Amino acid sequence: MDVRVQSEPFDFGAEAGRFAEGHHTMGAVVTFTGIVRDDDGTLDRMEIEHYPGMTERALEAHAREAQERFSLGDVLVIHRHGALRPGEMIMMVATAAPHRADAFEGAQYLMDYLKSRAPFWKKEYTADGAAWVAAKDEDEDALGRW
Amino acid sequence: MDVRVQSEPFDFGAEAGRFAEGHHTMGAVVTFTGIVRDDDGTLDRMEIEHYPGMTERALEAHAREAQERFSLGDVLVIHRHGALRPGEMIMMVATAAPHRADAFEGAQYLMDYLKSRAPFWKKEYTADGAAWVAAKDEDEDALGRW
Amino acid sequence: MQILYFAWVRERIGEARETVETEATTVTELIEELRARDPRYAAAFADLSALRVALDQDLSDFDAPLDGVREVAFFPPMTGG
Amino acid sequence: MQILYFAWVRERIGEARETVETEATTVTELIEELRARDPRYAAAFADLSALRVALDQDLSDFDAPLDGVREVAFFPPMTGG
After folding, report:
1. Name one GO biological process term (chains A, B) (predicted).
2. Nearest-by-Cβ selection for A30 from B20, B26, B32
3. Which residue in D2, D10, D78 has the most chain A C-beta atoms within 10 A of its own C-beta, making it the best mutation to test that interface?
């Protein structure tokens, strides 16, 4: 299990490749990557605030829960904070499991918890000014599945 | 959309990294990788037979269906045939979508169809001999979701 | 008409493909013809629930007509991924 | 007791953290004390349904006791991922 909270960019391809290497009893690896969207080309940057200490604890707790619940052989979580430009990768999770259903569900569970229960807050800066991103009801609702 | 059927190994990290690069309207990328398992250390190799022509058509049809159904911005499918050793990567899919639910579901849909509807057959070679891998009821059942 | 066999169907029949002249109008009729030909075919087609068929590279049913079909393939349930 | 503020709660109050001496026994009582102190706090705590609280870095309820708690954090619903 590997959980990292950092302001620096990470190399998704290298992380994913390393995570998927060397498994002999895990038949399935799933990765998820979140990217800063800029649908209408007006976003200058996103700034992600976090709660140092609690963030790491929350991510580690969620990763441990996912690992036990879905019998994951390995889990990786990387989440950035600070300023990110459109197209930059915000975060990634990766899960390894013997079979695909657990690998997929483990990654989805991690994402659903991370969206609504890990202490990060996003602020978007456009030419029109800055605004905090509001939490979505659908993200809160997604937790009902688990 | 990119669909490849090949006997050569592929570089999962490089493919995943390239696939996730340069998106400005897709906020979510999901990858799945299938790996040759060898739970008890007795597997020498797996040989994957396929139906040249039909395999490519089936994978392309499934990729197109997934793309439309889940509004995917991009889809990648790579599937190997021939001899593979334990720990080697058999195949990968990758999906890009504006939001995570579609990226996850698109990848799961592709995997469920690929497991039971793409013309591949696996034979396992152990010290005890060779045996065709039987299709699993749960893989057929998984299609009921869609 | 080209007939293709894959996986253990291919192994039981002993060939990957062959060309046959047939008057069969459906897949089921074609299977009856093949079964009558040789015990290898009878063994391969003993349990149709364990078989799948593709007509011109599209998955099909056993009662599908062979009208205009150039390539028939028989194989066990697929195990990709 | 350390109190931390994040995101727009931090912006409304104008500080990221402060140390307070309080007799409050629950989070709700602490909020009442803060609200009475200054309009900035009243603005930040105007709508509790838009707020979340963590006690010693664990998400908690507003009626949770403050017994032994060293760090209280107030923030809007989280938007990670």
Report:
1. Mo-molybdopterin cofactor biosynthetic process
2. B32
3. D78
Residues of B in contact with C81 (CB under 8 A): 34, 79, 90-91, 111, 114-115, 118, 120
> For residue range A17-31, what is the model confidence (pLDDT) as tens digits?
999 999 999 999 999
CA distance A30 to chain D (A): 16
Q: Which two tokens stand for residue B62?
A: 């499934």
Give percent of chain A above pLDDT 70: 100
* pLDDT tens digit sequence for B11-59: 999 999 999 999 999 999 999 999 999 999 999 999 999 999 999 999 9
Which residue in D7, D8, D54 is closest to A54 by CB distance?
Answer: D54
d(CA A47, CA A125): 8
* pLDDT at residue C63, rounded to an integer: 95
Per-residue burial over C49-63, b = 16 or more CB atoms within 10 Å of its CB, e = otherwise = eebbbbbebeebeee
Distance from CA of B104 to the nearest CA of A (A): 8
Query: How many structural domains comprise chain B?
Result: 1
Place of tokens 């579609």: B102
Q: Where in the sequence is the domain holding B7, given as residue range(s)? A: 2-144
Task: Tell whether A55 is within 8 A of chain B (Cβ).
Answer: no
Look up residue C26 and give its DSSP letter.
B
Sheet holding A43-50, edge to edge: A82-84, A43-50, A120-126, A129-132
Positions of chain A with pLDDT under 70: none
For the domain made up of C2-75, the CATH class stated in words is alpha beta
CATH code, A12: 3.90.1170.40
B73 touches chain A (CB under 8 A): no
Complex-level ipTM = 0.95
For chain D, which residues make up each domain, given as ranges? Answer: 2-75
Q: Mean pLDDT over residues B89-97, rounded?
A: 98
